[in-house]
Amino acid sequence: MKATFYTVIALLAFAANSLFCRMALAEGYIDAWGFTIIRLMSAAVCLGVIMTLHAYRLRSQAVKYSHTDREALLNDKGSWLSSFSLVVYALCFSLAYVALDTGTGALILFSAVQLTMIGWGIYKKEQLSTLQWLAFFVAVAGFIYLMLPSVAAPSLLAATLMAVSGVAWGVYSIRGKSCISPLRATGFNFFRSLVAVPILLIVGIYLNNTGVTNSHLESITTKGIVLACASGAIASGMGYSIWYTAMPLLKNTQAAIVQLCVPVLAALLGVVFLSEPLTVPFVVASAIILGAVLVFILNKDTPKAFDPRY
Questions:
Q1: How many CB atoms lie under 10 A from the CB of residue 284?
Q2: Count of domains observed in the chain
Q3: What does the pLDDT look like over 195-221, one tens digit per residue?
Q4: Concatenated DSSP letters of 212-274
Q5: Is residue 64 assigned to a domain?
Q6: What is the DSSP string of 32-73?
Q7: Where is the EamA domain (predicted)?
């Protein structure tokens, strides 16, 4: 029961990440650059509080953890390369959602993450069965089908940005598999990402002054700030923390499979809160991609993912 509760809450948080971003940008409450900056800052603050409580808990449970294990957990501080991947993911995520529906964006993100991680496994010469190879190519075909020119086809630029975001999170997830404490590593990576905040601010102002974008700092509304903080502190910071609590309670395959729900949940949230339509291409592409990934996972003892990538 505990595992189910934590898992459902975490998946809703990750799906809500897409909803918060799309809602803020589609309604013009904030621009993509401002959203990214506030999201990174609020996530860092939230994770800082959670990590402080986590460190206190580790130090107080001397019986449960040996001194060596406790120090190893406390010394896991991520890396600059992972933090760079995190910033690329967050920025491209926001820029893409200026033009993408909630569900479409989540599906492209999920597809890019999964294909990146599967592709990395192939590059590292992991042994795949014939069925897994077939599932991989079917997933790629589903992604191509989603992008085929049609009335409902997503913006090519926005879709490309979201795909880049997914690749960046795939890289982040691959690097994170070696972490001893994913929660602390993620927290420190968010801390490092704050170095990029002044750069994002300057670039955002420059693009506005040159007419490339129409964003203005003075146009950022209270609703935009609240949605960006919700995306960072609640959907990202608290969502990751709850997921890391759920993961030890799930089997490897279960942890991977439940993540297939995120694009579907995101699409449903978009329908309910933003009145976005469920198009036939999206439904077909979702069935093809998620079904193929499910087949791939069920035919492999997949290690627990470092992060659900949303």
A1: 13
A2: 1
A3: 999 999 998 888 877 766 666 566 789
A4: S----GGG--HHHHHHHHIIIIIIIIIHHHHHHHHGGGS-HHHHHHGGGHHHHHHHHHHHHHH
A5: yes
A6: HHHHHHHHHHHHHHHHHHHHHHHHHHHHH-TTTS-HHHHHHH
A7: 158-297
With respect to residue 84, please indicate whether it lies within any of the assigned structural domains.
yes
pLDDT, tens digit, for every residue of 3-53? Answer: 889 999 999 999 999 999 999 999 889 999 999 999 999 999 999 999 898
Whether residue 309 lies inside any domain: the answer is no
Exposed/middle/buried for residue 141 (C-beta within 10 Å: 0-12, 13-18, 19+): middle
Domain range for 217 = 2-298
Helix ranges (H only) for 61-151 are 67-74, 80-96, 102-123, 130-147
**Two structure tokens written together for 98:** 């200026």
Question: What single-letter amino acid sits at 258?
Answer: V
Residue 72, C-beta contacts closer than 8 angstroms, at least 6 positions apart: 180
192-197-202 Cα angle (round to 5): 150
* Alpha-carbon distance values, 41 to 16, 110, 225 (Å): 18, 24, 11
